[in-house]
Amino acid sequence: MSISIKVLLLLATTIYQAIAIYWEERQPPPGKLIDIGGYRLHLYVLGEARPTIVLEHSLGGIEGYFLIEELAKLGRVCIYDRAGYGWSDHSPYPRTSRQIVQELDLLLTKAGIEPPYVLVGNSFGSYNVRLYAHLFPEKVAGIVLTDGLHETGMSQMSLQLQALKLFFISGFLISIPGSILGIIRLLRVCKVFELIKPELRNFSQNSLNWVKRSFCRPKHWITMSREMINLDKSARQVSIAKDFAQSPLVSIKANSFFKPSFWSIFIPLRGANQLRDKMHIQLGNLSTDFLQVEANQSGHFVWLDQPDVIVDAVKIVLAKISSSL
What are the φ and ψ backbone dihedral angles of 118, each rounded to 5 degrees? Predict the structure, then answer.
């Protein structure tokens, strides 16, 4: 292929990406954009009754759109796009758990979402909900952790797992120009996401569009990189959040970090699962009212593989809260 043809293709994909983003930005978001001090966060609320369920996403994820309709059957649900994801603006501040928690509390306060809250933290989101519950204990009625992380275990990662972390960061960085040039959008149009993760086909088209929309934007991958680079700092920040007394806490444990497949042979899956086992033991010490639930058919992405397990875990916490009144 000649250089001129390559340049034309590059120009065409870039123009297509620009037009598509312009068109999508004209469409209103499902929720509200709320200014928290010079930048806005997107908050989507569905359902009624209290306590309010607040979902904190995984690193780079905005999977709450897949869960909100089922969770809304249990009560009022709030999902939000952390700064840099979805419809939310970039934040000028570091992407650490402490900063994220401060932004979340300011968002809920400005939106008039009164406590108490049941916090659902998926993966990296488990750091954030633990720190939130530590800093604002009077606002939190219960916690659900979905294949959560623990800072002690994360500090003991083997060299192989450290290399895997660097591999992920490099992938996020490479995806920044890929999204600028429209390559990620092309993958979206060709339904490559559904080929990689067939479980996506189980969700509504609206929720799929809302989630995939974010991945097509450079700011999404920039924010993922920023959160990943600050992961050790977030771990140190959350280390103070280690005693929730008798607060109900349900921890969901996936069967494996990744479901075994042809490509999982290239990653240190056994080491990752051994680390997860240690972390789940450590999570069990956070509360005297602790329950571990197994997601036996799931990899780390429980919200895709077995979302019903997350819904059931929330039901358990709500039942515990109700019985204590």
Answer: -105, 115
Q: Any idea of the CA torsion for 209, 215, 95, 120, to the nearest 10 degrees?
A: 40
Instruction: Work out the number of other CB atoms within 10 angstroms of the CB of residue 99.
Output: 19
Structure pTM? 0.90
Average pLDDT over residues 290-318: 95
d(CA 73, CA 115): 19
Residue type, 70: E
Q: Where are the alpha helices (DSSP H) in 230-267?
A: 231-238
Cα gap 4→168, rounded to integer Å: 33
Q: Distance between CA atoms of 212 and 207, rounded to whole angstroms? A: 9
Residues 31 and 299: their CA atoms lie apart, in Å, by 30
Q: Give the dihedral sign, CA 61/65/70/71.
A: positive
Question: Mean pLDDT throughout 78-106?
Answer: 97
Q: How far is residue 47's CA from residue 311's CA, in Å, rounded to a whole number?
A: 14
Quick: pLDDT tens for 241-281. 999 988 999 999 999 887 766 565 667 778 888 888 999 99
Strand order in the sheet with 117-122: 32-35, 40-46, 77-81, 52-56, 117-122, 140-146, 249-254, 290-295
- 76 is written with which tokens? 């009022």
Model confidence pLDDT, tens digit, residues 17-33: 666 665 666 678 999 99
Whether residue 325 is predicted with pLDDT greater than 90 in this model: the reply is no
How far apart, in whole angstroms, are the C-alpha atoms of residue 61 and residue 82? 9
What are 140's two structure tokens? Answer: 């939190």
Q: And the tokens for 312?
A: 């059931």
